[in-house]
Amino acid sequence: MGTYILTMLLVGLFAGLLGSLLGLGGGIVITPVLTLAFGVDIKYAVGASIIAVLATSSGSALAYLKDDMLNLRIAMFLEIFTTLGAFVGAMLSVVTNAQILFLLYGALMLFQAFNMYQKIRSKAETDINHKADPWAQKLKLAASYYDKGLGQKVDYQVDRVAAGSTVMFFAGVVSALLGIGAGAFKVLALDTVMKMPLKASSATSNFMMGVTATASAIFYLFIGQINPVLVTPIALGVLAGSLLGSRLMPHLPVKLLRWIFLLVLLVTGLQMFMRGMR
Fold it and tell me: Which residues are listed as membrane-spanning (predicted)?
Protein backbone atom coordinates (compact mmCIF):
# COMPACT_ATOMS: atom_id res chain seq x y z
CA MET A 1 0.00 0.00 0.00
CA GLY A 2 2.89 2.33 0.84
CA THR A 3 4.51 1.72 -2.55
CA TYR A 4 1.20 2.42 -4.28
CA ILE A 5 0.77 5.75 -2.47
CA LEU A 6 4.36 6.80 -3.22
CA THR A 7 3.95 5.91 -6.89
CA MET A 8 0.74 7.93 -7.18
CA LEU A 9 2.42 10.86 -5.40
CA LEU A 10 5.29 10.82 -7.91
CA VAL A 11 2.89 10.54 -10.84
CA GLY A 12 0.99 13.52 -9.46
CA LEU A 13 4.21 15.50 -8.89
CA PHE A 14 5.31 15.02 -12.51
CA ALA A 15 1.82 15.80 -13.83
CA GLY A 16 1.55 18.97 -11.75
CA LEU A 17 4.98 20.18 -12.84
CA LEU A 18 4.26 19.72 -16.55
CA GLY A 19 0.71 20.98 -16.20
CA SER A 20 1.67 24.27 -14.58
CA LEU A 21 4.62 24.86 -16.96
CA LEU A 22 2.55 24.35 -20.10
CA GLY A 23 -0.97 25.29 -19.05
CA LEU A 24 -2.20 21.73 -19.56
CA GLY A 25 -3.61 21.11 -16.10
CA GLY A 26 -1.89 17.78 -15.34
CA GLY A 27 -4.69 15.63 -16.72
CA ILE A 28 -2.75 15.15 -19.96
CA VAL A 29 -0.33 12.99 -17.93
CA ILE A 30 -2.71 11.43 -15.41
CA THR A 31 -5.19 9.86 -17.84
CA PRO A 32 -2.66 7.97 -20.05
CA VAL A 33 -0.45 6.92 -17.11
CA LEU A 34 -3.34 5.48 -15.11
CA THR A 35 -4.91 3.69 -18.07
CA LEU A 36 -1.78 2.52 -19.91
CA ALA A 37 0.62 1.80 -17.02
CA PHE A 38 -1.74 0.80 -14.20
CA GLY A 39 -4.76 -0.54 -16.07
CA VAL A 40 -7.25 1.79 -14.41
CA ASP A 41 -10.63 2.01 -16.14
CA ILE A 42 -10.70 5.19 -18.23
CA LYS A 43 -13.87 6.41 -16.50
CA TYR A 44 -12.11 6.43 -13.09
CA ALA A 45 -8.92 7.79 -14.67
CA VAL A 46 -10.94 10.71 -16.03
CA GLY A 47 -12.37 11.36 -12.56
CA ALA A 48 -8.86 11.38 -11.06
CA SER A 49 -7.64 13.68 -13.82
CA ILE A 50 -10.42 16.18 -13.18
CA ILE A 51 -9.32 16.41 -9.53
CA ALA A 52 -5.69 16.74 -10.68
CA VAL A 53 -6.69 19.67 -12.87
CA LEU A 54 -8.27 21.38 -9.85
CA ALA A 55 -5.10 20.81 -7.81
CA THR A 56 -2.85 22.16 -10.59
CA SER A 57 -4.96 25.28 -10.95
CA SER A 58 -5.01 25.85 -7.19
CA GLY A 59 -1.25 25.41 -6.86
CA SER A 60 -0.18 27.68 -9.71
CA ALA A 61 -2.86 30.35 -10.10
CA LEU A 62 -1.80 32.44 -7.09
CA ALA A 63 1.85 32.58 -8.22
CA TYR A 64 0.91 33.54 -11.78
CA LEU A 65 -1.50 36.20 -10.53
CA LYS A 66 1.24 37.67 -8.35
CA ASP A 67 3.58 37.86 -11.38
CA ASP A 68 0.81 39.49 -13.53
CA MET A 69 1.12 36.65 -16.05
CA LEU A 70 -2.48 35.59 -15.50
CA ASN A 71 -4.94 37.74 -17.50
CA LEU A 72 -7.89 37.54 -15.11
CA ARG A 73 -10.24 39.62 -17.27
CA ILE A 74 -9.81 37.28 -20.27
CA ALA A 75 -10.09 34.21 -18.04
CA MET A 76 -13.40 35.21 -16.48
CA PHE A 77 -14.91 36.23 -19.84
CA LEU A 78 -13.94 33.00 -21.62
CA GLU A 79 -15.02 30.84 -18.66
CA ILE A 80 -18.63 31.53 -19.65
CA PHE A 81 -18.05 29.44 -22.77
CA THR A 82 -15.84 26.73 -21.24
CA THR A 83 -18.27 26.11 -18.36
CA LEU A 84 -21.18 25.70 -20.77
CA GLY A 85 -19.08 23.26 -22.78
CA ALA A 86 -18.12 21.33 -19.63
CA PHE A 87 -21.75 20.68 -18.75
CA VAL A 88 -22.44 19.43 -22.29
CA GLY A 89 -19.34 17.19 -22.21
CA ALA A 90 -20.18 15.72 -18.80
CA MET A 91 -23.62 14.66 -20.06
CA LEU A 92 -22.14 13.18 -23.24
CA SER A 93 -19.56 11.17 -21.25
CA VAL A 94 -22.25 8.85 -19.86
CA VAL A 95 -23.16 7.56 -23.32
CA THR A 96 -19.75 7.80 -25.04
CA ASN A 97 -17.81 4.59 -25.78
CA ALA A 98 -14.38 4.34 -24.06
CA GLN A 99 -12.61 3.45 -27.33
CA ILE A 100 -13.94 6.63 -28.92
CA LEU A 101 -12.54 8.61 -25.97
CA PHE A 102 -9.06 7.17 -26.58
CA LEU A 103 -9.18 7.97 -30.30
CA LEU A 104 -10.51 11.48 -29.72
CA TYR A 105 -7.87 12.17 -27.07
CA GLY A 106 -5.04 10.99 -29.32
CA ALA A 107 -6.27 12.82 -32.41
CA LEU A 108 -6.61 16.11 -30.52
CA MET A 109 -3.12 15.84 -29.05
CA LEU A 110 -1.51 15.09 -32.42
CA PHE A 111 -3.36 17.98 -34.02
CA GLN A 112 -2.10 20.40 -31.38
CA ALA A 113 1.45 18.96 -31.70
CA PHE A 114 1.37 19.87 -35.38
CA ASN A 115 0.24 23.42 -34.53
CA MET A 116 3.04 23.77 -31.98
CA TYR A 117 5.65 22.54 -34.49
CA GLN A 118 4.47 25.17 -36.95
CA LYS A 119 5.02 27.81 -34.27
CA ILE A 120 8.58 26.60 -33.58
CA ARG A 121 9.37 26.33 -37.29
CA SER A 122 8.28 29.92 -37.92
CA LYS A 123 11.14 31.05 -35.62
CA ALA A 124 8.98 33.95 -34.45
CA GLU A 125 6.81 34.43 -31.42
CA THR A 126 3.19 35.53 -31.57
CA ASP A 127 2.79 39.05 -32.98
CA ILE A 128 1.88 40.96 -29.84
CA ASN A 129 1.77 44.32 -31.62
CA HIS A 130 -1.22 43.55 -33.87
CA LYS A 131 -4.33 45.74 -33.78
CA ALA A 132 -6.73 44.76 -30.99
CA ASP A 133 -10.09 43.14 -31.80
CA PRO A 134 -13.04 45.60 -31.31
CA TRP A 135 -14.53 43.32 -28.64
CA ALA A 136 -11.16 43.12 -26.91
CA GLN A 137 -11.05 46.91 -26.81
CA LYS A 138 -14.57 47.15 -25.37
CA LEU A 139 -13.82 44.52 -22.73
CA LYS A 140 -10.33 45.95 -22.03
CA LEU A 141 -8.58 42.59 -22.49
CA ALA A 142 -5.10 43.95 -23.31
CA ALA A 143 -2.50 43.48 -20.56
CA SER A 144 1.21 43.25 -19.76
CA TYR A 145 3.61 41.21 -17.61
CA TYR A 146 7.30 41.15 -16.77
CA ASP A 147 9.14 38.28 -18.49
CA LYS A 148 11.88 37.17 -16.10
CA GLY A 149 13.51 35.07 -18.84
CA LEU A 150 13.84 38.05 -21.19
CA GLY A 151 14.32 40.59 -18.42
CA GLN A 152 11.77 42.98 -19.90
CA LYS A 153 8.12 44.03 -19.77
CA VAL A 154 5.83 42.51 -22.42
CA ASP A 155 2.72 44.45 -23.52
CA TYR A 156 0.19 42.63 -25.70
CA GLN A 157 -3.19 43.01 -27.45
CA VAL A 158 -5.88 40.36 -27.97
CA ASP A 159 -7.34 39.39 -31.36
CA ARG A 160 -10.33 37.32 -32.66
CA VAL A 161 -12.38 37.19 -29.48
CA ALA A 162 -15.37 35.45 -31.14
CA ALA A 163 -13.22 32.67 -32.64
CA GLY A 164 -11.39 32.18 -29.34
CA SER A 165 -14.70 31.92 -27.48
CA THR A 166 -15.89 29.18 -29.87
CA VAL A 167 -12.69 27.17 -29.34
CA MET A 168 -13.15 27.60 -25.58
CA PHE A 169 -16.64 26.08 -25.73
CA PHE A 170 -15.26 22.95 -27.38
CA ALA A 171 -12.40 22.99 -24.87
CA GLY A 172 -15.02 22.68 -22.13
CA VAL A 173 -16.66 19.73 -23.90
CA VAL A 174 -13.32 17.95 -24.31
CA SER A 175 -12.38 18.71 -20.69
CA ALA A 176 -15.41 16.91 -19.34
CA LEU A 177 -15.17 13.99 -21.81
CA LEU A 178 -11.47 13.24 -21.34
CA GLY A 179 -10.59 14.60 -17.92
CA ILE A 180 -7.58 16.51 -19.24
CA GLY A 181 -8.63 20.06 -18.50
CA ALA A 182 -8.39 20.58 -22.28
CA GLY A 183 -5.36 22.76 -21.67
CA ALA A 184 -4.08 22.04 -25.19
CA PHE A 185 -7.28 23.52 -26.61
CA LYS A 186 -7.18 26.50 -24.25
CA VAL A 187 -3.57 27.31 -25.07
CA LEU A 188 -4.42 26.88 -28.77
CA ALA A 189 -7.25 29.43 -28.41
CA LEU A 190 -5.18 31.94 -26.46
CA ASP A 191 -1.76 31.55 -28.13
CA THR A 192 -2.73 30.79 -31.74
CA VAL A 193 -6.23 32.17 -32.25
CA MET A 194 -6.24 35.20 -29.92
CA LYS A 195 -2.49 35.89 -30.35
CA MET A 196 -1.49 36.14 -26.70
CA PRO A 197 2.14 35.39 -25.68
CA LEU A 198 2.72 31.74 -24.74
CA LYS A 199 3.59 32.40 -21.09
CA ALA A 200 0.49 34.53 -20.53
CA SER A 201 -1.56 31.90 -22.39
CA SER A 202 -0.25 29.07 -20.18
CA ALA A 203 -0.82 31.00 -16.95
CA THR A 204 -4.35 32.01 -17.96
CA SER A 205 -5.14 28.48 -19.15
CA ASN A 206 -4.10 27.03 -15.78
CA PHE A 207 -6.52 29.29 -13.93
CA MET A 208 -9.37 28.65 -16.36
CA MET A 209 -9.03 24.89 -16.13
CA GLY A 210 -9.71 24.97 -12.41
CA VAL A 211 -13.00 26.79 -12.95
CA THR A 212 -14.03 24.50 -15.83
CA ALA A 213 -13.07 21.33 -13.94
CA THR A 214 -15.22 22.30 -10.95
CA ALA A 215 -18.39 21.88 -13.01
CA SER A 216 -17.23 18.46 -14.25
CA ALA A 217 -15.97 17.30 -10.83
CA ILE A 218 -19.37 17.85 -9.20
CA PHE A 219 -21.01 15.73 -11.90
CA TYR A 220 -18.44 12.90 -11.66
CA LEU A 221 -18.74 12.89 -7.86
CA PHE A 222 -22.49 12.33 -8.04
CA ILE A 223 -22.23 9.45 -10.54
CA GLY A 224 -19.49 7.72 -8.47
CA GLN A 225 -16.53 8.04 -10.84
CA ILE A 226 -14.14 9.61 -8.30
CA ASN A 227 -12.22 7.01 -6.23
CA PRO A 228 -10.81 8.66 -3.04
CA VAL A 229 -8.04 6.04 -2.64
CA LEU A 230 -6.81 6.77 -6.16
CA VAL A 231 -7.40 10.53 -6.16
CA THR A 232 -5.94 11.63 -2.79
CA PRO A 233 -2.20 10.84 -3.30
CA ILE A 234 -2.35 12.04 -6.90
CA ALA A 235 -3.91 15.36 -5.89
CA LEU A 236 -1.26 15.95 -3.20
CA GLY A 237 1.55 15.24 -5.68
CA VAL A 238 -0.03 17.46 -8.32
CA LEU A 239 -0.34 20.34 -5.85
CA ALA A 240 3.37 20.16 -4.98
CA GLY A 241 4.38 19.85 -8.65
CA SER A 242 2.26 22.79 -9.73
CA LEU A 243 3.79 25.02 -7.07
CA LEU A 244 7.26 24.11 -8.33
CA GLY A 245 6.29 24.61 -11.98
CA SER A 246 4.79 28.04 -11.34
CA ARG A 247 8.12 29.15 -9.83
CA LEU A 248 10.15 27.83 -12.80
CA MET A 249 8.00 28.88 -15.76
CA PRO A 250 8.59 32.68 -15.67
CA HIS A 251 12.36 32.09 -15.99
CA LEU A 252 12.32 29.58 -18.89
CA PRO A 253 12.78 30.56 -22.57
CA VAL A 254 9.57 30.40 -24.61
CA LYS A 255 11.19 28.21 -27.29
CA LEU A 256 12.12 25.61 -24.66
CA LEU A 257 8.55 25.59 -23.38
CA ARG A 258 7.28 25.01 -26.92
CA TRP A 259 9.64 22.04 -27.46
CA ILE A 260 8.56 20.48 -24.14
CA PHE A 261 4.94 21.09 -25.10
CA LEU A 262 5.48 19.43 -28.49
CA LEU A 263 7.18 16.36 -26.99
CA VAL A 264 4.45 15.84 -24.38
CA LEU A 265 1.71 16.16 -26.99
CA LEU A 266 3.37 13.72 -29.40
CA VAL A 267 4.07 11.00 -26.84
CA THR A 268 0.63 11.24 -25.24
CA GLY A 269 -1.25 11.51 -28.51
CA LEU A 270 0.45 8.50 -30.11
CA GLN A 271 -0.01 6.29 -27.05
CA MET A 272 -3.68 7.07 -26.63
CA PHE A 273 -4.45 6.87 -30.36
CA MET A 274 -2.81 3.43 -30.60
CA ARG A 275 -4.74 2.24 -27.56
CA GLY A 276 -7.98 3.39 -29.18
CA MET A 277 -7.12 1.57 -32.42
CA ARG A 278 -6.73 -1.67 -30.43
Answer: 7-38, 44-65, 72-92, 98-117, 161-185, 205-223, 230-250, 256-274
